[in-house]
Amino acid sequence: MEPWPIGVFASVDAGLGVNLDVARDLGVPTIQLHAPAAETRTQANADKFLATLEEYGLTLTAVFGGFEGESYADIPTTVRTVGLVPQETRVARTEEMKEIADFARMLNCDVAALHLGFIPEPELAADEYRAILDITRDVCDHCAGIGQALHLETGQESADGLLRFLTDVERDNLFVNFDPANMILYGTGEPIEALRKIGKYVRSVHCKDATWSDAPGQSWGSEVPLGEGSVGMEAYLSTLKELGYTGPLTIEREIPQEPARQKSEIGHAVELLTSLKSKLL
Ligand code: MG
Hints:
Layout: E1 6-10, H1 20-26, E2 30-34, H2 43-56, E3 59-64, H3 75-81, H4 87-106, E4 111-114, H5 126-145, E5 149-153, H6 159-169, E6 174-178, H7 180-185, H8 191-198, E7 202-207, E8 209-211, E9 222-224, H9 233-242, E10 249-251, H10 259-280
Parallel strand pairs: 1-2, 1-10, 2-3, 3-4, 4-5, 5-6, 6-7, 7-10
Antiparallel strand pairs: 8-9
Helix pairs in contact: 4-5, 6-8, 8-9, 9-10
């Protein structure tokens, strides 16, 4: 595949991505997929999905785990409900994440990915930190057994916190899906600086933009159309180039409640990335 193939984040029956026909209409070559709901993760549906991908000329580059009960309503709710970290759902979701990886395998996809949740700081909660290391190793080992890498979405930790965690897990199939807008939305650090720090782990990326909250880390920043926020798309792509990143550029625009606007803004994002690619590559 050419370097930096453009992609979009897509959904079937769960998650905030666009429908597959939007990806087809926009003419992009790749997608990442939010895992469909448990009852639809069957071999028959995988086969149907693969046929559609082929018909639309799309390559699937990652499958993202997501779980019932997750809510991004505000930052405290996100801490309480998202990913494998929340205690009440930890065991069940860890098992479900392995099932999602199995579904990704049915789709011939070598990358499973997720928001792990807010990783506790080892100085403040040593036992919890160790427990999260253990479940992450468990999922990594499952993925390794089926020839997959696991990518952690960024945002909930600072680059330094995430770097320490990645090192502590000690698994060589654990990488990062870098989302620069999340660093701003969650208030966890300047995205370009963070990208440089964890660059060697970055194997997939989101192209998403945002503006800072006036109380970073306490309330959300605002997600905005690509190029209109504080990431700085040219600096972002230049840094990816310096790091030797050639993987997909997957556009995320999380406004599924406004599908027409979502499609048109992603169309503009495709144009922006296309022009930056021709400038930088
Ligand atoms: Mg993202």
